[in-house]
Write a structure and sequence with these properties.
Layout (H helix, E strand, L loop, with lengths): L5 H16 L32 E5 L14 H9 L1 E6 L9 H10 L17 E2 L14 E2 L3 H9 L9 H8 L4 E4 L1 H7 L5 E2 L1 E3 L7 H4 L4 E5 L2 H8 L13 H21 L5 E5 L11 E6 L6 E4 L8 E3 H12 L13 E4 L4 H45 L5 H28 L10 H20 L10 H19 L25 H24 L19 H21 L7 H18 L6 H23 L6 H11 L2 H14 L4 H19 L1 H4 L3 H8 L3 H18 L4 H32 L20
Parallel strand pairs: 1-8, 1-9, 2-11, 2-12, 5-7, 5-8
Antiparallel strand pairs: 2-10, 3-4, 4-6, 9-10, 11-13
Helix pairs in contact: 1-16, 1-17, 1-18, 3-6, 3-10, 8-9, 11-12, 11-21, 12-13, 12-14, 12-25, 13-14, 14-15, 15-16, 15-17, 15-24, 15-25, 16-17, 17-18, 17-24, 18-19, 21-25, 23-25, 24-25
Length: about 775
């Protein structure tokens, strides 16, 4: 007999498993506050002191394809001796302008210049000129419009604290040197001031290069080439001619050579392509030399991807190299060097290819959802009409049902196949979009073939179980081994959006959660059916013949639920905050329903509260680690009273997702399909859901809990309606496949049913048979 606390028991099992997993260390994401020997014996922190020297060269618009041994020898030599990576420059807008990039360096958080053209930064206010923020220091400068810029960024959802980097340097007794207008915006302190200013590198003497611990240099020739060519940074991307771009790259390299020749020994040089050059975002140049950066690829805890770093990481890296603590307002992670034996040419080519992949997936990602949903809905509509008019001989009906089932299974395989397609360099093909389509179809066909290859093909639910199991396994193994299939894939995330670089993105979470729910429900079918042959095929094997089928079935759900929560929620793997909030109550509901118990609104609320407690527990433990992820930082925000702003930002994004038509329209169509085709048997004469329920004990709990995880996931994630759309993309076709197979089984049963025999001696209706 099942205990009353079945759902709570499932939750406790999850808690125990997660607590065990939390003891492992997670990869670094935020820079560890460096004490630098500044702690005193009584535990109080002394004032930090600067222990390093850094030069930051900001080159708005620079791409890796601009760099070559002949055209840019200085940058090529720096890359050969140091570490290189692709730089994601996304800030608060789709395209990042030069001033946005410099302000993001200043704040260590996504920042912006809210008003004004996307042009080069304005000239600073120098000594002798009036300034609203007070007179500039002798030989220094003040960023124009700084009070308005500071107030605007403090009021955004990111609450960027511009001036943070400059204040940190000044608090430690250091000074700042800005070369070029943009550098003033990057190193300006809370009042927008830098201690020393020069308009260009050729105006800086050898002594002035070593005057301050940090120097920022604005090299704007690449972006200026676009402005000189008449390109509107707010309009469509207009490519600059190769010779113009090449000339600009050569001019940039001459400036870089001037800087490298002037900086003193022991200086760490950081190069960043700080901004885009139009509305089309790209991955820009990131390079580092000195300070432990040898030949290899750059990476960071914020991305966990070799050869990929973010603009907000630049601030964290600078602070770490200076030996200064990283304030919590700076959200990035230090650039790290991943040594590589590859040649400079091979490394540069790999980083160019990384940008090509990001561009290619951006071109097809939105249209993929339209095609996926539209093709399925058209085919399902045709199948629905055919099913409504079922008639004729049994062979015709069997062909319609069999074809519909294969199409539905292919549709259910497509989401998982889209991740497998990311393992192939499809973007390198002459026709990348066509190659990607073929790759997705090929992997979907392979998964469908496996689902229909074994003896389980005769079952109504087992082929769907194979597909959901494979989908969940693919996604789980991926996040456990570095999330290689998540980045730049159709249902994953992209480096250009920069919303996430590791673990589960919102779309992948929705797919994984629904796949795990359906897998556990359909696995639980076997102990429930043990020893009881039914219309869905032969009885299960002997090893599943438990005495108490319900207890075994609930155990299956608990086991899968523990694994799913661990994979999704642990910082080292999925690192997903909102996912745990949805998965825990959904699995608790599933356990209760399979146990035959009613899930009341009060119990559902308790299950949701249990999910909240669990994710806060994960957040707390992670916040105590040396390198907390965004999960741990949420606990820190909660303790500081800043968590409400994070929740508010995500809620507003969720509400805003309702206006994202590529997801909202297919979702509405899918809901209509479910209601009119599957749920209303009187109108359509058949009810596939009813047939599915007759052939599968766990079909109803599976679908209800899959819907529940989609609804809860929609409410607690900033992607909103995207979650539900992805959930339907897996659940709907597999549900249709199960229903169609149920009709096939009914057809087979009718065909095998023996014809009724007439009683002996009955009249045949023939006059000759009658007695006279």
């Amino acid at each position: 007999m099942i205990a009353r606390g079945t759902g709570i028991g499932v939750f406790l099992a999850v808690v125990v498993a997660v607590l065990g997993g939390l003891s492992g260390s997670a990869p670094a994401v935020a820079g560890t506050p460096a004490t630098g020997g500044n702690a005193v014996a009584d535990g109080r922190a002394a004032a930090p002191t600067i222990t390093g020297r850094v030069v930051i060269i900001g080159i708005p618009g620079l791409l890796w394809k601009d760099i070559g041994p002949q055209r840019t020898p200085a940058l090529w030599g720096l890359t050969a001796q140091g570490s290189a990576g692709g730089l994601s420059v996304r800030t608060t807008k789709v395209n990042t302008c030069p001033t946005d990039g410099w302000l993001t360096l200043s704040a260590g958080q996504r920042a912006r210049l809210a008003h004004g053209d996307c042009a080069l930064p304005s000239s600073p206010i120098v000594s002798g000129q009036p300034s609203p923020s007070g007179p500039p220091p002798p030989g220094g400068a003040v960023a124009p419009g700084w009070p308005a810029i500071k107030g605007d960024n403090a009021g955004t959802s990111y609450h960027a604290q511009v001036g943070l980097l400059g204040d940190a340097v000044h608090s430690a007794g250091g000074c700042t040197t800005a070369v070029g207008p943009g550098a003033v915006f990057g190193l300006g302190d809370g009042n927008g001031r830098v201690d020393h200013y020069a308009p260009s590198p050729d105006k800086v003497t050898a002594a002035e290069w070593s005057r301050c611990e940090i120097t920022a240099v604005d090299v704007d020739e690449m972006f200026r080439a676009y402005l000189d060519a008449g390109v509107d940074p707010h309009g469509d991307q207009v490519p600059v001619e190769d010779d113009q771009r090449g000339a600009a790259a050569a001019a940039v390299d001459r400036r870089v050579a001037q800087v490298l020749s002037g900086v003193p020994g022991g200086t760490t040089v950081l190069v960043a392509g700080l901004s885009d050059t139009g509305v089309r975002p790209r991955l820009r140049v990131a390079a580092a030399k000195g300070g432990g950066y040898g030949p290899g690829f750059l990476t960071s805890g914020a991305t966990r991807q070799d050869g990929l770093v973010t603009l907000t990481d630049l601030t964290a890296t600078t602070l770490k190299l200076l030996g200064l603590p990283q304030p919590k307002e700076a959200v990035g992670s230090q650039w790290r060097s991943q040594p590589s034996s590859a040649s400079t040419s091979d490394r540069v080519a790999a980083l160019e290819d990384e940008d090509v992949a990001a561009q290619a997936i951006r071109n097809v990602q939105t249209s993929f959802y339209w095609v996926l949903f539209a093709v399925q809905l058209v085919l399902y509509g045709i199948a629905a009409l055919a099913l409504r008019r079922l008639g004729g001989d049994q062979r015709s009906r069997a062909r319609i049902l069999g074809g519909t089932r294969v199409i539905a299974l292919l549709g259910g395989s497509a989401p998982g196949a889209s991740f497998l397609a990311g393992s192939m360099p499809w973007w390198q093909a002459p026709r990348p979009t066509l190659t990607l389509i073929c790759a997705v179809l090929g992997f979907a066909g392979l998964m469908t073939g496996v689902a229909l290859a074994g003896p389980w093909r005769r079952s109504s639910f087992a082929p769907g179980l194979i597909i959901t199991g494979l989908t969940a396994l693919i996604l789980a193994l991926d996040v456990m081994t570095g999330s290689a299939l998540q980045l730049n894939t159709l249902m994953g995330y992209t480096a250009l959006v920069a919303g996430r670089f590791y673990g589960f993105g919102n779309q992948a979470f929705a797919l994984f959660a629904v796949a795990a729910i359906l897998t556990s429900a359909w696995l639980a079918e076997y102990p429930l059916r043990a020893g009881r042959p039914g219309r869905d095929g032969p009885p299960p094997p002997r090893w599943l013949a438990y005495r108490d089928g319900k207890a075994a079935a609930v155990g299956v759900v608990a086991l899968v639920g523990v694994v799913a929560v661990a994979v999704d929620g642990l910082p080292a793997w999925g690192s997903d905050f909102g996912g745990v909030l949805a998965i825990v109550p959904a699995f608790a509901m599933l356990g209760m329903m399979i146990a035959g118990r009613r899930v009341s609104p009060l119990r559902l609320a308790l299950f949701c509260a249990a999910g909240l407690v669990l994710v806060l527990l994960i957040s707390y433990v992670n916040s105590r680690s040396a390198n907390p992820t965004h999960l741990g930082r949420f606990w820190q925000d909660l303790m500081d009273g800043d968590a409400w702003e994070v929740v508010k930002r995500k809620f507003e994004a969720m509400v805003g997702s309702l206006g994202y038509w590529p997801f909202t329209l297919p979702l509405a169509a899918a809901l209509g399909f479910l209601f009119f085709v599957l749920v209303r048997p009187n109108r359509w004469r058949i009810s596939l859901l009813s047939r599915s329920y007759e052939h599968s004990i766990t079909m109803r709990p599976a679908l209800v809990c899959a819907l529940a995880v989609g609804v809860i996931g929609t409410l607690v994630n900033d992607s909103g309606v995207v979650i539900m759309s992805v959930a339907f993309s897996l659940a709907t076709p597999l549900m249709l496949a199960a229903g169609v197979r149920s009709l096939e089984l009914d057809l087979i049963a009718d065909r095998e049913r023996p014809e009724p025999r007439e009683p002996r001696g009955a009249s045949t209706g023939s006059p000759s048979a009658e007695r006279p």
